[in-house]
Amino acid sequence: MAWLQTLDLALFQIVNHHLANPAFDFLLPLFREKWFWAPLYLYVLAFAWQQFRRRRFWFFVLSVALSVGAADFISSSIIKKSVQRLRPCNDPAVRETVALRVSCGSGYSFTSSHAANHFAFAVFVGAALGRRMRRLRQGLLVWAGLVALAQVYVGVHYPLDVVFGGLLGAGIGGVFAAWFLKRAPFNGDWANSTPTDAAGSARA
Questions:
Q1: Which of 60, 74, 94, 131 is spaced 20 to 30 Å from 204 by Cα?
Q2: Is residue 194 in some structural domain?
Q3: What is the rounded distance in angstroms from the CA atom of residue 187 to the CA atom of residue 203?
Q4: 143-162 pLDDT per residue, tens
Q5: Alpha-carbon distance 136 to 130, whole Å?
């Protein structure tokens, strides 16, 4: 596995150093902050409120919370404590070369909980609402990918941390989405309207 660690470190150097520019220095640390994405979360809630009957809306909110909570717990409390990989900014072998752009933190590195949580949210919401807003699915995956990239850029995670964190979150989000859609299918008992496209298709 030495080759994989070598590749991981090389990719880290590319993202952390060679992609550096003033715009990324300003934006990517912000991408890690929950409050920065508050308008997105409010938009998703508002759209779900508009589209679903109240019972399905609250089931949607509960399912989002369970999906993200499960991803965070498995990543932070199980995998990180089992693997115990040091963050690059705390690793004596590389920390002197790390361009650290935020506080390093004391937690372990693998897997990235930021990546796991955001991909769980993206996959779940994309599946649960994607039929009603078809362009949302791709946009949310790009968004989660940018949040994951930011973890590497600021110096607190290696690329493999965010890749496996993203895969973990996507898997959990997919499982909860399947459960949600099975328990609350798109029909007249749960939905307020027929599916619409984000570009502005008219409702039935």
A1: 60
A2: no
A3: 15
A4: 999 999 999 999 999 999 99
A5: 6
- Give the percent of the chain with pLDDT over 90: 71
Tell me if 132 is assigned to some domain: yes
What is the tally of structural domains in the chain?
A: 1
Q: Is the pLDDT of residue 202 over 60?
A: no
Does 162 fall in a domain?
Answer: yes
Cα(197)–Cα(30) distance, integer angstroms: 30
Helices (H) and strands (E) in the chain, counts: 8, 0
Domain containing residue 95: CATH number:
1.20.144
Residue 42: inside a domain, yes or no?
yes
| DSSP letter (8 states) at residue 95 | G
Angle, alpha carbons 181-76-171 (nearest 5°): 30
Range list of H helices, 74-135: 80-83, 113-129
Give me the domain span that covers residue 26.
Answer: 9-183
Closest to 167 measured CA to CA, from 101, 122, 198, 107: 122
Task: Output helix, strand, coil percentages for the chain, rounded to the nearest 5.
Answer: 65, 0, 30
Extract the tokens encoding 80: 């990180």
